[in-house]
Design a protein that fits this description.
Layout (H helix, E strand, L loop, with lengths): L2 H5 L3 H4 L29 H12 L3 H33 L6 H45 L4 H5 L3 H43 L1 H8 L1 H39 L1 H6 L3 H53 L5 H42 L32 E11 L5 E12 L4 E5 L6 H8 L7 E6 L2 E2 L5 H6 L1 E5 L7 E2 H6 L7 H10 L3 H4 L9 E2 L8 H15 L3 E5 L7 H15 L3 E5 L11 E6 L2 E6 L1 H7 L2 H14 L1
Parallel strand pairs: 3-10, 3-11, 6-9, 9-10
Antiparallel strand pairs: 1-2, 1-4, 4-5, 7-8, 11-12
Amino acid sequence: MSEQQRTNTSIQDQGGSPANMPGFGGPRGPMANLGKPKVRAKDLGGTIRKLWRYLAVHKWMLILVLFMVVVNVAMGLLGPYVLGLAVDNLVYEEGDGLMRLIICLGGIYAGLSLSAFLQNYWMIGISQKTVYTMRKDLFRRLHLLPIDYFVKRRHGELMSRITNDIDNVSQTLNSSFIQIFSSVLTFAGMLVLMAALSPLLTLVTLLIVPLMLLGMRWITSRTGRLFKEQQRHLGELNGYVEETVSGQRIVKLFSQEKRVIEEFMEKNRRLRDASYWAQVYSGFIPKLMNVLNNASFAIIAAIGGWLTLRGVISVGTILVFAEYARQFTRPLNDLANQFNTLLSAVAGAERVFEVMEEEPEFEDHEDHEDPREKVHPQTAQLQTVRGEIRFENVSFSYDGDEGEKLDTLQGIDLHVKPGETMALVGPTGAGKTTITSLLARFYDPQQGRILIDGLDITTIARNELRRLMGFVLQDTFLFTGTIRENIRYGRLDASDEEVERAAKLANAHSFIIQLPQGYDTVLTQDAADISQGQRQLLAIARAILADPAILILDEATSSIDTITEIKIQEALYRLMQGRTSIVVAHRLNTIQNADQIVVLHQGRIIERGTHQSLLAKKGYYHDLYQSQFTSEAM
């Protein structure tokens, strides 16, 4: 696998998980989760314990919430009971207590509303504070992980953990946590009250439950397959939309609009058909519940009326039973829905904790609290770094997809004196960029060592090490923000005058002042409103502002027109003055003045020397230079 293949990510990888993209979604509502494939955590208990560590911070508020849930359930169960007493009082003409019962009933329903408001209000606060802390910890952990972690994982999948998975946890804490607890209490309390009022009517009501479970099982056995098919088509459609929107320029350049629209319509039609039948079958569930509830009500009314005529129970008891029977299946439905949602949220939380538990790169990060992670005392020597670089018998292999080692560098020995410029040349995949990555400690070699000013870089804090280096890469990355802010990224405490001085040295000032807002011009995503060459000049200005002791240029002038290349070369010449520089180049005419040129092939050094000495050898470098010179002349 080449270095380019390792660093490139596909269009598909840049987006979120298709099935979770905003704007597209499955069914909503109380029956949305029934019949859908369950997403379960691998370690349910362990994930819940980790989640509890975040919730435990708010344990007293949680106790209040649970107390309000108990109050709410008690009020909800007490309301129909008091209503039955009032009816009995009215029917049997015991009117003295009717007004007290009505006032009591008003107080119960007021308490029901207040407890519902308080439990939701407090739980929303707890959930938002919890996911705020989780999101902060996750984002911080991402910035402590090594580059290799991001290379091996899809960017969209990581984005999904920060957004979709944590949002899933938030929504579940807001609703499912309370709903599950409330449903269990409601079902148990309702069953106890019904049994106390009339064991016979309770038994009649319970006879409906097996019919309900059999009906739900018959329906969900079909909706499960249909929802899986719907999610598959939804994922295909979302992926296709993401791909075509990202590649809109290519679609228009090759006039493929008609074909793209036709393919979208076909995928959309398949999603429509799958969703139609999934919704039809899932729609049977509430209809089944209504039929069973109505049947239960009719049976209770008939048997209850018969018992009332014989003086076994009162009219109010029938009313209470009818109300309880009407609500009897609701807790079961809620439990079925919310339990699946809870399992899905725990699975999302597990994905979040997997990232948090990854081994960090910055063992010596200044904010890290692990007492084992301390900056090496010799780091102080780097305050006056000279910039001497040595690679001593360095070998390195990437980890392949199946765990095998992919050899990239073998036995590399290099020596760059302070202030010298060393150029690395060779075909794609020869190991040029890997050398610069090892120097920056994005990776550590499996063999050998790398030294700066005689100090092994593994003894230097990584953040301190990288502060010594300035990077100008082939693919310049600029953030959404002003040009001034993007240049200042090299040194955040730089003044406006220092930013402009760096831009002038980088030959960027002239084009910046021609922009509508000058240095305050806001760059859009990927800086698409300025040219590639202008982006490179801004990157050079950023590096100049950082004032690094060691400069790394990785294909900094590739894909640039001749005039812009001259400007970039002038800026780079100023930047390289007095600094140790390592230049990765494909254009050999840009490195003719390098102090030494190292030729790499298949991870090994095959030639080294100055431009003239290598040409005189008439070896690999000579052939490479001649072929490039001939192609440029043509």
